[in-house]
Write a structure and sequence with these properties.
By secondary structure, the protein is mostly helical. It folds into two domains: about 70 residues; about 90 residues. It contains six helices and no strands.
């Protein structure tokens, strides 16, 4: 958690050894994130190739329904992997990363729901029960996403209120209070 240079802190200044160790951990973290990113890029490429492979057979047999189902399923997997890649590489605040992971969860839930609806292996009763459970999971994720976004907006409004012209008296505070949200 970064603090302003002029802001008082309860933490003492790190020693030279602590500072070097912190830098070493930051480099190790960056290296591991890069390795994960390369794996995710490889998986995205594999998933996109799988889309072509999955759709090619049904299209050549003129089974457009099966091609659409298989193509949608494989494309959703590629989208989920791309979202994971984006979230892994983002360096934003934790609230932004949480929103991105919730979006990944919603996308995965939708993909799973489509997979359940397209399955012809089990009976109608099992499909309906699985879809109901999946819909409940999607609803919980969407509610969590709404709550996080609602809290972020409330925090932004509070920050704008703290920087209002009556409190700060600067032109920057006036500009910040006129930002539409």
């Amino acid at each position: 958690m970064a603090t302003e240079k002029n802001e008082p802190s309860l933490r003492p200044e790190p020693t030279h050894t602590e500072s070097r160790l912190g830098d070493l951990f930051a480099r190790a973290e960056s290296l591991l994130i890069s390795v994960v990113a390369f794996f995710l890029i490889a998986f995205v490429i594999i998933a996109l190739l799988a889309v072509v492979k999955e759709v090619r057979g049904p299209l050549l047999d003129y089974d457009f329904g099966a091609a659409a189902i298989k193509g949608t399923d494989a494309t959703f997997l590629a989208i989920i992997l791309l979202e994971l890649l984006h979230t892994t590489l983002s360096r934003g605040p934790i609230s932004q990363q949480l929103q991105e992971f919730l979006v990944i969860g919603v996308t995965a839930t939708v993909r799973h729901g489509l997979d359940i609806a397209a399955s012809r292996d089990s009976g109608a009763r099992d499909i309906v029960i699985n879809l109901a459970i999946n819909a409940a999971g999607a609803l919980v994720l969407v509610l969590a996403l709404w709550l996080v976004r609602h809290q972020v907006r409330a925090d932004e409004r509070a920050a704008r209120g703290a920087a209002s012209p009556t409190n700060a008296g600067s032109e920057e505070a006036e500009d910040a209070s006129q930002i539409p949200y």
